[in-house]
Amino acid sequence: DTAVSQTPKYLVTQMGNDKSIKCEQNLGHDTMYWYKQDSKKFLKIMFSYNNKELIINETVPNRFSPKSPDKAHLNLHINSLELGDSAVYFCASSQDMRLPTSGELFFGEGSRLTVL
Amino acid sequence: KNQVEQSPQSLIILEGKNCTLQCNYTVSPFSNLRWYKQDTGRGPVSLTIMTFSENTKSNGRYTATLDADTKQSSLHITASQLSDSASYICVVKTGAGANNLFFGTGTRLTVIP
Hints:
Mean pLDDT of chain B: 93
Strand content of chain A: over 45%
Helix content of chain A: under 10%
Mean pLDDT of chain A: 91
Number of helices of chain A: 0
Number of strands of chain B: 11
Number of strands of chain A: 11
Strand content of chain B: over 45%
Number of helices of chain B: 0
Low-confidence stretches of chain A: none
Structural class of chain A: mainly beta
Largest sheet of chain A: 7 strands, mixed
Oligomer: heterodimer
Distance between the termini of chain B: 41 Å
Largest interface: A-B, 29 and 26 residues
Largest sheet of chain B: 6 strands, mixed
Order of helices and strands of chain A: EEEEEEEEEEE
Low-confidence stretches of chain B: none
């Protein structure tokens, strides 16, 4: 029973294409996130949704558009893909947006995007 | 500026040996510090959390320390196993909300037989 699952695990596509990554969590958490991990393994937050509402939108090109149909799902759509978008994208969830005391994030297994 | 720096960047050790990973931070105010383990091709998983009042905490062969005065934490791995090969990421939390999490770039540990 995977807690945070994301698909696809691997995505190879051409520049200029549009692609989506889906994420689902079965932990009953209120808050979900998208993180980008670059080639140097640095994790950077992109978006955060709390109960379907966008609460964090870091400096990310507007080619990236998250969508949360319900609090258990957070999808990421990327338009007009560029070479620099190649990275591993991680979905994560937490109990709520305040990350109370513990501040633990539960991550999915990642989606490796390669733009050719 | 809030930063988290980890050292070494990478480390190779023989199976059975001990090692220590370092995390130095300038994050303020400090809420807690968490160590994550990220296996290759997987997402990070929490190993342990250190709060301001805790100096040492063990989780099996993993022992984390925290010196809030010098803003340093370490993760000591005892009797390393091949399965310890992974990236170890230090994350420091300040205040509330996900944009108050500061990630280190991680230490890549390789345990060889």
